UniProtKB/TrEMBL annotation:
Gene Ontology molecular-function annotations: methyltransferase activity
Keyword Methyltransferase found: yes
Alphabetized PROSITE patterns for the sequence: RSMI
Pfam families the UniProt entry points to: TP_methylase
Protein name: 16S rRNA methyltransferase
UniProt keyword annotation of Transferase present: yes
Annotated keywords: Cytoplasm, Methyltransferase, rRNA processing, S-adenosyl-L-methionine, Transferase
Naturally occurring in which organism (per UniProt): Salinicoccus sediminis
Start and end residues of each Tetrapyrrole methylase domain: 1-184
GO biological process: methylation; rRNA processing
């Protein structure tokens, strides 16, 4: 929690939260007396109109989540969209986000990455999503629960046991832990070196580039493009050079010696 976040929660009229019991622990710790009101996936459509009307009348609200950054894999984007539509002012107070912290501590390339959030719970969609992640060229970041983490790592290891994977748990809490290993080794670590407790962030290294192989000589490849694709020799030479990662001059020489 930042000073700005604490001061904001003290100044607003109402704090919207997923579970008032969870948020009460936070507000008690920081001596925040602001009233709490439930706002979660199961009641957000029912309470949204009332919240918007109260905002229009001048009442101020803060939205918090049980853990991490509000709206990220948590309810709230609908309310933000509604406020935009109604022309109501709002601001974002920076706070901890598990997926960014897990990514930073992973040691896996992070210049480009894709955040997948939580996987589908069961069945074909879950299997397809894991396959998508394992074929994804960029680093992937996802959340997982303690009772599914081992099955997820088994699935990852089944596709590519040597893929680098980072697992973080209990981020910002007393038993915070970060581990990185190849997928097969990480699967064995779960339940042993890594307790199956808390919420997990998994960071998966992007899929390796697959080098395309060609079963024909360079000069035949150029000729094929000329005949079958109708390219001019100059165009075909350039295309073959790019496809094979060769110098155009080398491809030119090979073709014209044919």
């Amino acid at each position: 929690m930042t000073f700005r976040a604490v001061e904001t929660l003290k100044k607003v009229d109402v704090i919207l939260c997923e579970d008032t019991r969870t948020t009460r622990k936070l507000t008690n710790h920081f001596e925040i007396a602001t009233p709490l009101r439930s706002y979660h996936d199961f009641n957000k459509e029912e309470v949204e109109d009332r919240i918007i009307e109260e905002m229009k009348s001048g009442k101020t609200f803060a939205l918090v989540s049980d853990a991490g950054m509000p709206v990220v894999s948590d309810p709230g984007f609908e309310l933000v969209g509604r406020m935009q539509h109604e022309g109501l002012e709002y601001s974002v107070i920076p706070s901890a986000s598990a997926f960014t912290m897990g990514l930073v501590t992973s040691g896996i390339p992070s210049y480009e990455f894709t955040y997948f959030g939580f996987l589908p719970k069961t069945g074909r969609k879950r299997k397809e999503k894991i396959e998508e992640i394992m074929n994804h060229p960029l680093t992937s970041v996802l959340y997982e629960s303690p009772h599914k983490i081992k099955d997820t790592l088994r699935a990852i290891s089944g596709i590519d046991p040597g893929r680098n994977v980072s697992v973080s748990r209990e981020i910002t809490k007393k038993f915070e832990q970060h581990e990185r290993a190849e997928a097969a080794r990480m699967t064995d670590m779960l339940g042993a070196e890594i307790p199956l407790k808390g919420e997990f962030v998994i960071v998966v290294e992007g899929a390796p580039e697959i080098e395309e192989t060609f079963d024909m000589p360079v000069e035949d490849h150029v000729a094929q493009l000329v005949v079958e694709e109708g390219m001019k020799p100059k165009q075909a030479i350039k295309a073959v050079a790019e496809l094979r990662g060769l110098r155009k001059q080398d491809v030119y020489d090979a073709y014209h010696k044919k």
